[in-house]
Amino acid sequence: MFELDRSQKEIQKAARDFAKGEFDNNLTLELEANRKFPKKIWEKAAELGFIGIQFSEDYSGGDLGILEASLIAEAFCCVDSTLGIALTLSGIGSELIARFADDKLKEKILPKICEGNMLSGIGFSETNHGLDLSSINTCAEFNGDTIVINGKKTHVANRGTKGAYLLLCRTGQKEEVPSKAFSMVWVEGDKKGITLSDSGPKFSTNMMQSADITFENVIVPASNLVGKQGKGQVLLEKFYNEIKILTAAQSIGIAQGALDRSLSYIKQREQFNRKLAVFQITKHKIAQMAEKVELARLITYKAAYLFDKGKAGSCLISMAKMTAARAAVEVADEAIQLFGGYGYMKESEVERFFRDAKMTELSFGSPATQKDIIADAIIGRIK
Amino acid sequence: MDILKFSKEHNLFRERLKAFLETEVTPHVAQWEKDHIVPKSTWKKMGKAGFLCPMVATEYGGLGGNFLYSVIVGEELSYTVHSGLSANVHSDVVVPYLDSFGSKEQKEKYLPGCVSGDIITAIAMTEPDAGSDLAGMKTTAVEEDDHIIINGSKTFISNGINCDLIILAAIDPAVTNKHEAVSLYLLEATTPGFKRGRQLDKMGWDSQDTAELFFSDCRIPKTNRLGDAGSGFLLLMMKLQQERLVCAMCAVFAAERIMEFIVEYCKNTTLNNKPLIRSQAVQFDIVEMTTDVKLGRTFIEKLCADHMEGENVVIETSMAKYWTTDMVNRIAEKSMDLCGESALLESNIIARAKRDVRVMSIFAGTNEIMKGIAAKFMGF
Fold first, then answer.
1. Would you kindly state where each structural domain of chain B is located, as residue ranges?
2. Is the predicted pLDDT of residue A338 greater than 90, yes or no?
3. Backbone dihedral angles phi then psi of residue B33, each to the nearest 5 degrees
4. What tens digit of pLDDT does each residue of B156-174 get?
5. How far apart (Å, rounded) are the C-alpha atoms in residues A204 and A89?
6. Of A71, B43, B260, B365, which is the most exposed, with the fewest CB atoms less than 10 Å away?
7. CATH homologous superfamily for B123-230?
8. Residue A176: its pLDDT value, please?
9. Contact of A62 with A54, CB cutoff 8 Å
10. In CATH terms, are B8-119 and B123-230 the same topology?
């Protein structure tokens, strides 16, 4: 458990080498400024098997686990936080297809995701604040062989007409208990009745544009239902568990990347005729940054390892996500401070690492949401 | 009991400023943030309306007011949630060098323009290799007959693109003691050999025209030296107290604005059919954050009062600068957490607020330098 095996180390190294060879800060800054998705890099990453490594070989995946996917996410984010996030989330939502859809839907979707032919996004929330089941009004009506969708989703990654979306829809009556009221439906972006409205610039990851998406009598085949009808809430939790591990992995990559950059900077930058690295305050800052990365990595790998064994619950996973994201935010913030004025400049990278770290902390549930989940699991039901 | 005593004149000034900012600034902020600069015409309007350099004596066109006018300007500007129109940098950080140390001729020549907004100022201290270690600067000033020849470069200079007049710190390479080598100079932006470098892309302060400046054989008259030769370091040390106090003040004001926003957000946003503010954890967060801000407010008001009485509050000012700027960053981040995913959209003002306040713990002397100064003056 405390050491990766040889093939895992090889995957880690391959991912790192790929990122070092392909990622480039100037390119990232350009993509960020123009809000353009890194299409070429994504296609190349897919070609080399870095996308969907956790999915079955039958569907062009790598037949490996979430631990291996995490190692890739970490390696990518360490080299470039924004590109790393964009690649890791390129097929977001397809996790549920892989785990719960029938073979026909898997065959239709997963190879496209793994081969870099399709980007996907998740349409869950209907308020900007984040997911709130009580506010979900988008409904999916079954009509023989088809499903008709009406409603509006907020803050969805804009994947264009070639992309697709996993939608959380109400399929039961408004009075129905949440555990039976929702379903997950896969919707291709080229369907008639889909209207996108740009959410505008974002705090980070502008290369992934967000949009509010309106669905007006959008018709998809009934086979696009993911999992069982009415089981949306359960699937939602499963989805969150899987994506939160990958988010934690992104966070540790970001934290490590910020630490690495700080280390090179303090060894090279001189003030008062001394390297920054010889000041005790600098040393202690670095020590704490390294400690945070180490702890975050431990819990993240543990969650990923147990997930692959079917033994990770939402309690441990939420702890991992919360811990790793906090580590990323704190380490990247300290990196900016060590860089001084340069740290505040876009060219320094660490300011972007900080913003991306904050995104990992606020996505898929804020720290307060993670605490609610952890507490519920630990305390249990009080009579 | 109020620590700071605002007079009727102060309050009238505030009302006029509020009205000015509402019509001339707030509606344009979004555009300026996109343009990465505030038009010079707005600086002029602000000057003509009497809101620049209120502390300058009336004979030079100012109000001859006390430091409370600066407090008012900083506080009212905080409502505009942008940093481009950095009136406090101009009025309270740069111009005071001219006002306090300038000769009668220098003051007559430049001060009226600084007050009217026809002259926008910048102070050029930081260099690529001299940030925290100011005495490590390499820009040289060499006397040649009646002139001084300037060579070198400066970076991270606020108002770098808009500035008409620069207060420049440079060393005489013939002087070996680093601290005695520095002098301050008044350099007009029209001086041949002066070039503005690229405007710097930053995490925040999007509307502020921070830039690199280059000086290549810039010839300025010897009479443009500010104060005595070799006094530069001392003059800087004398004025940095006010700069850091202004910085601490602005940190508290920004934190207060963030609190106003986040409390409203938590009242108006529901989760599971319940306003966020009804959640116990949210309430405790808001209470803790408000406590932080109130501590900061009390601290800076006391310091402003002491500063106005001419007391040496270098230790407390260093402490206040580091504590308040860290505090506003805590408040901004916690507010992002409370906003959840919506904080990731720039349409949420908290996103910009966080990007803007991050620089405060770095500029005007990093917070590490602040702790170093406090430790030194505490005799350690």
1. 8-119, 123-230, 233-377
2. yes
3. -65, -35
4. 999 999 999 999 999 999 9
5. 14
6. B260
7. Butyryl-CoA Dehydrogenase, subunit A, domain 2 (2.40.110.10)
8. 85
9. yes
10. no
Cα(A4)–Cα(A11) distance, rounded to whole angstroms?
10
Per-residue three-class SS string for chain B:
CCCCCCCHHHHHHHHHHHHHHHHHCHHHHHHHHHHCCCCHHHHHHHHHCCCCCCCCCHHHCCCCCCCHHHHHHHHHHHCCCCCCCCHHHHHHHHHHHHHHHCCHHHHHHHHHHHHHCCCCEEEECCECCECCCHHHCCCEEEEECCEEEEEEEEEEECCCCCCCEEEEEEECCCCCCHHHHEEEEEEECCCCCEEEEEECCECCCCCCCCEEEEEEEEEEEHHHEECCCCCHHHHHHHHHHHHHHHHHHHHHHHHHHHHHHHHHHHHHCEECCEEHHHCHHHHHHHHHHHHHHHHHHHHHHHHHHHHHCCCCCHHHHHHHHHHHHHHHHHHHHHHHHHHHHHHHECCCHHHHHHHHHHHHHCCCCCHHHHHHHHHHHCCC
CA distance B291 to B298: 11
State how far residue A339 is from chain B, nearest Cα, in angstroms: 9
| Per-residue model confidence (pLDDT) at position B141 | 98
Calpha distance A269→B121 (Å, rounded): 30
Interface contact A89, partner B, CB < 8 A: no
pLDDT score at A1? 65
Q: Which one of B156, B200, B274, B345 makes the best mutation probe of the A interface by having the most chain A beta carbons within 10 Å?
A: B345
Q: Distance between CA atoms of B345 and A78, rounded to whole angstroms?
A: 24
Interface predicted TM-score (ipTM) of this complex, two decimals:
0.97
Q: How many residues belong to chain A?
A: 383
List the single residue in B273, B363, B368 with the smallest CB-CB distance to A281: B368
Contact with chain B for residue A228, Cβ under 8 A:
no
B268: distance to nearest CA of chain A, Å? Answer: 11
Residue B243 appears among annotated catalytic residues: yes
Decide if A155 touches B, using CB distance below 8 A: yes
Supply the pLDDT for residue A258: 98
What is the structure's pLDDT at A54? 97
Place of tokens 């070039």: B195
Instruction: Say which CATH topology domain B8-119 has.
Output: Butyryl-Coa Dehydrogenase, subunit A; domain 1 (1.10.540)
Task: List the catalytic residue out of B75, B127, B243, B256.
Answer: B243
A351 contacts B342? CB cut-off 8 A: no
Query: Is A25 in CB contact (< 8 Å) with chain B?
Result: no
Structure tokens at B132: 């925290």
